[in-house]
Design brief:
The complex is a heterodimer of chains A (422) and B (478).
Chain A (H helix, E strand, L loop, with lengths): L4 H26 L3 H22 L4 H25 L4 H23 L7 H6 L9 E4 L2 E4 H19 L1 H9 L1 H6 L4 H23 L1 H18 L3 H29 L7 H19 L5 H28 L12 H9 L3 E4 L2 E4 L1 H24 L4 H11 L5 H10 L17
Antiparallel strand pairs in A: 1-2, 3-4
Chain B lengths: L1 H7 L2 H23 L2 H8 L4 H26 L5 H8 L1 H13 L7 H25 L4 H24 L11 H4 L7 H20 L1 H9 L1 H6 L4 H23 L4 H12 L6 H25 L5 H19 L5 H30 L8 H7 L6 H11 L3 E4 L2 E4 L1 H24 L4 H11 L5 H10 L20 H5 L1
Antiparallel strand pairs in B: 1-2
The chains are: A mainly alpha (422), B mainly alpha (478).
Amino acid sequence: MNWTLLDTWMLATGIFSALSCALLGNFLFVRRLSLMGDAISHAVLPGLAAAFLITGSRDSGPMLMGAVIAGVLTAVLTQGIAHAGKVEESTSMGIVFTTLFAVGLLLIVRAADRVDLDPSCVLYGSLELTPLDTIRIGGMTLPRAFLVNTSVFAVNAAIVWLLFKEFMIGAFDPMLAVTQGFRPRWMHQLLMALVALTAVACFETVGSILVVAMLIVPAATARLLSSRLPAMLGLSLAIAAGSAILGHLGALTIPRLFGFEDTTTSGMMAVAAGAMFFLALIFAPGSGVLAHARNQLSLRRRIENEDALAALYRRGEGMELATAELPSPRLLHRLERRGFAAESAGVWQLTPRGKEEAESVIHAHVLWERFLVDHANMRVDHAHQSSERLEHVTTPEMREVLAETVEKPVTPPSDGSILPPR
Amino acid sequence: MTAQRQSRGSPSFGLLVALVGVLAFIALTVCAESATPALWRIFSLRDYNTRVVMGGTGLLGVACGVIGTFMVLRKKALLGDAISHATLPGIAIAFWVMVAAGGTGKYLPGLLLGAAVSGVLGMGAILLVRHHTRLPEDAILGIVLSIFFGAGVAILGVIQKMSTASAAGLETFIYGKTASMLGEDGRRIAWAAGVLIAISVLLFKEFRALCFDAGFARAQGWPIRTLDAVMMGMVVTATVIGLQAVGLILVIALLIIPPSAARFWTEDLGILVWLAAGLGALSGVVGSGVSAAFPELPAGGVIVLVASSVFVVSLLFGRARGLVFRAVTHLWLEVRITRQNALRSLFEVSERHSAGEPVTEKALREVRYWRGMQLHRALRRLEREDRVCRVLGGWRLTPDGHEEAQRMVRNHRLWELYLIHHAAVAPSHVDRDADLIEHVLGHEMVVELEKLLDATVAEPAVPESPHPIAAPVEEGGT
């Protein structure tokens, strides 16, 4: 890999477009409008084409205008058709953006004799070419795309910073926003306009596919890692920047491993974002696949332990237990390791600590049985089944409430035994 | 029952209007380009090539219309979007593999196989993420869509720099190139469409339950997840066969737009499916025909625009839900309600007067708010129907009008009494509630009310109003 100045500029441009998109993506995500980013990024095509056909030049100003108008039009038409035709909103979004995209394709073809407005350029972007198009500002030669993307990010960041409270309330509780006088509908249109502006600014450099990926994936990944919006914002920005860097490195290195030339950076940036999402999906603390499996496992262990303790306790009380009801040797050894049980002369006995634990489980069991029979009108034989499950999830607070509710002295509702009635 | 029948509407009338709309579209195009001979040549199906292309896209429209109907009804319209984008890496990898195996890489069935495999992988990814997280559905679709498509773009980027083969032309899968369709492609589309339609017919009952009442389907013991997967598999199939014709971005339009358009014409799922298939076929045939006349236009775009025009026509003129139809129904309802209000107000005012004394419009305006000429128009209409007559200084009910007004006032007050005695609503509040319901009170309801209130009301008589009749302050003031 040979890193050049060009790579630095490409990477900087890519990072800033990723940041701009990811910032807005959070608000789209919480409003369940993630696909609106996809829709708008397709639908700005006719805006670009129309601006070109009208002005006849590839000036950024009119193009940006056209695209923002097309983007807001997408949002307005989507809501309008959904409302007027009683069509579901995502359906109406699909209708609007495919139609606008088709119009854009036709317009581009009509314009094609006069210009090289290549649809695939909009789709993939040409990050590779951006460092070549430079302007001089105050003695510094900077790539134009870099300036555009940083200013878009600055605009987005400023608006989100200024209107953070309004955006947040508008996203989570539009009704509250109305009563507070925030005009959530205006906020919505502002958001849509910002998305359109960002999409267009980034198209030229990174292509629509990366815009869509960066609008959706970092925010969703951040959501897996945190459930607070400010934290989500920070995380998603970090993820966006990270996937831009990893994506560019990947584009330079990964194809070489297979003996090819390097590949499209924007595509690899989307793939890098996807890899981060996948990692978060697996490893996220709390909601990740692994954490979930670990919770399940520890819950299962706890239930096994508690059942085994209760069984040993009952046998200690002189109750006859069938062989199937006795804990397995593996389980007994686990209890021994935790200091709940000990073997003496071939017989497993509860230690004092184990006895205490077992009593607490059985106490919960009896409380639940009593409660279910007396207060929930459950039949005695059914109450045992339910209590078997509930005893494992009884918190101390719950136990207190139960103890206050049921009559004293607390006795098992059946024949005095704490085993299921046979 | 009758109301239900009415609202269903006749799809034949609807189809007619839709056809007219599409013909108008063609006519406009023709005028714009004055290419009548070319169009005539195309739509008379004189060339073998044209027949293949139009037949192929038409069948594609049918297949997409059928499966799209279920997706739209299940509010999963954009699933097709995610899956169609997810086919790109498969196409690129299939090309790569075929080149590595020594071919040109342009063998279409191979590319489509790759597309199908990665479409199924995309579908699996959606199911996986949905199972393991609580992310909203739209975010999941967006994630799968953008990552798969990004991977596809990256792989295409690699391929385009390969020296061994030219990858030029793979982009046609993104935008579609209908004109390249051959006889065997047409046959493949026909086969796929046939299979999709057969599955839809066989599993119609199950799919219907899945669309409208998944809980019921589960209670029937039907394998919901399998059915869901079958449906997604059908979307993958429809998408893959649509790739060549309209491209992967616009194939979603064929899945969404015809069913949504058909939805404006009927409330019956059976009719809806066929109508969506028909509109899809129409879009495909007309679109590919028009684009054959203007070869520089991308066919996918034209097909989608034809479908969108059908949608707009349906949105406006649909017999079951169209805007015009709903506006007219609304207008008629308003006219009927105004008429009944005028009759009732006339009765209630004259009740307080001595018999035969005419009621002035001023007095009527005191008991109820009327917008502009609304009252006058309603009275004129009643006059034409011989329910009221104009007398010196005002209006008076004719015997016919008196009878009808009496019936109406009776219904109104029966409802008021019902609200007071059985729903414990304060007498000062019942007027407005009864005002809303009296226009739609059916005969059975009235009989029911009479039964409930028989102690208080004798048959023909109008019970006395349970509250003083006067103009509600906030309304009278405006």
